[in-house]
Amino acid sequence: MANVETKIQQEIRLGLGTRDDVRLFRNQVGQLPDPRTGRPVQFGLAKGSADLVGWKKVTITPDMVGKEIAVFTSIEVKTTKGRATQHQQAWMDCVEKAGGIAGIARSTEDAVEIVEQGLDCKSKLLS
Q1: Labelling 18: which of 38, 69, 82, 109 has CA 20 to 30 A away?
Q2: Which residues 6+ apart lie within 8 Å of 39 measured at CB?
Q3: Half-sphere CA count of 88, side-chain side, radius 13 A
Q4: What is the value of pTM for the model shown?
Q5: How many CB atoms neighbour CB 105 within 10 A?
Q6: What does each C-alpha distance from 65 to 43, 44, 73 come to in angstroms?
Q7: What is the mean pLDDT of residues 44-71?
C-alpha cells in the first residue's frame, strides 16, 4: 500500500463491504496530463469530495417523522436515441435497490420528473 491512509481506506472498504445496508465506492480525485495534448484532465466527482462515496440504507421509524433525510440520487443523461450501458444500468439498479432514486433523463423535464416522482417514474424513463 502506498501510505497509511490508503491502508485504512482499504480496511474500511473490506470491513463494510459485506454489509447489506452500506455501499461505498472509491472516489479517486486528481489531475493528470492528457498524454495526447499535455493538457490537465481532472478526474473524480469533484475537488474536495470524499474518498468513499455511496449510501447507507435508513429505515424510517416513528420518531423520525417530520425529519428530512438525504436519498442518494443518480441521473444518467442520454440523447433521444442513447441507451444505458450494462454498467450504467447496473449502477441505476443498485441505487434503486438501496432505496435511492435513479433514472435516465433525455431532457430537463425528465430530470425534474425523476427527482419529483422518484422511483415511481423508473419504468417509463429507463426504456
Answers
A1: 69
A2: 33
A3: 13
A4: 0.66
A5: 17
A6: 39, 35, 21
A7: 88
Average pLDDT over residues 36-56: 91
Quote the longest CA-to-CA distance of the chain: 57
**Can you spell out the DSSP letters for 37-83?**
T--EEEESSSTT--SEEEEE-----GGGTT------EEEEE--SS--
94's enclosing H/E stretch is helix 86-97
Q: From residue 29, how far is each of 2, 4, 36, 78, 109 by CA, in Å?
A: 16, 18, 21, 25, 31
Q: Which amino acid is at 16?
A: L
CA atoms within 13 A on the CB side of 68: 2
Number of Cβ atoms within 10 Å of the Cβ of 90: 11
Selection from 72, 68, 67, 69 nearest residue 55 by Cα: 72
Amino acid code (one letter) for 31:
Q
- Looking at the DSSP bridge assignments, the partners of residue 102 are 74
Burial class (CB in 10 A: 0-12, 13-18, 19+), 95: buried
Q: Are strands 22-26 and 30-33 parallel, antiparallel or unpaired?
A: unpaired
